[in-house]
Amino acid sequence: MFHNNRLCNLLGIQQPVIQGGMVWCSGWRLASAVSEHGGLGILGAGSMTPDFLREQIGKVRTATRSPFGVNVPLLFSKAEECMQVCIEEHVPVLITSAGSPAKWTAKAHEHGMKVGHVVANVKFAEKAEAAGVDFLICEGVEAGGHNGLEELSTLVLTQLVRKATPLPLVSAGGYADGKGLAAALALGADGIQVGSRFACSIESSASDIYKNHLLKVGTLGTVLTSRGWGPTRVVPNTFVNELQGLERKGASPEEQREFIGTGRSRRGMLEGDLEHGELEIGQIAGLFTGVASVAEIMEQFRTDFLETVQRLTQEL
Which of 31, 104, 133, 214 is deepest in the core (most CB within 10 A)? Predict the structure, then answer.
């Protein structure tokens, strides 16, 4: 299965499923498990020191011989140091986000790395292609955490980017099973990136308190905060209600940033503070019914995909 898939052939993986590089969720256990079960596991460097990232890379390599990657948000304060670690460690796949990949792509290629870049609109996709990246990840507003100002849905964004570039394309935002994978391929994508479903897995490094709370998102829903300057999809709580109150009163981005402070996502996702932490997650969490293992999630992708394709073929 997927023998002719461009993303699988490019990255050396068995299923066209990339695990999102999520802060506080994407440690070595999750990344190695996803890679070991046929997808591309990703270490989320956005919450790591360079030394800790190097340690995590070593642990992934001990746990699996399959390809894996590292996601580095380029606006991260330690981005330069983390990028240097990735190059020194010859990480198989580098995924950049929140900035321009132009500075690092050629250097990564010199060290045998494949490079992907996360975009939220066509303009950034075209710039990333011009920078020489090997593949693109287009992330719609359904996704958890930080989103694009345009608030384009995954359904629309995938089609727009597919029309604009011939590069291998990964669709992200709103995927949790093989039915979504079939839909993404039908839209012209070559694979999907999955964050929220893996955040709510046994191997996720996030707090069990946070994971179990995600099972209630079906009734709570998710909301976007900071829509005018840095849209972020989260589960509502006391912190979010207070932040939205500031937004309604016309607080400036600077005032909102001061209120948010530092360490909000760590407080919520790693430490399990459900009221005053930032609980980043995508809209798809409303479908979650349990905390599953990576093995179960990856098998569900495979079986759901095959059943969906079979059903559609029978209906033709």
Answer: 31
Q: How high is the pLDDT of residue 305?
A: 97
Q: How far is CA 261 from each of CA 11, 23, 235, 267, rounded to the nearest angstrom?
A: 38, 16, 18, 11
Phi and psi at 186, nearest 5°, equal -65, -30
246-260 core/surface letters (b: 16 or more CB in 10 A; e: else): bbeeeeeeeebeeeb
Domain over 6-205+288-313 is classified CATH 3.20.20.70: yes
The per-residue pLDDT for 238 is 98
**Residues 45, 42: Cα–Cα separation, whole Å:** 9
pLDDT, residue 265, reads 95
CA 41 – CA 159 distance, rounded (Å): 25
Write out residues in the chain with pLDDT < 70, as ranges: none
d(CA 284, CA 275): 21
Give tens-digit pLDDT for 201-239. 999 999 999 999 999 998 878 999 999 899 999 999 999
CA distance 224 to 306: 34
- Note the Cα 246 to chain centre separation in Å: 28
Give the three-class secondary structure for 109.
Answer: helix
Stated length of the chain: 316
145-146 vs 232-234, strand pairing mode: antiparallel
Q: How far is CA 149 from the centre of its chain?
A: 17
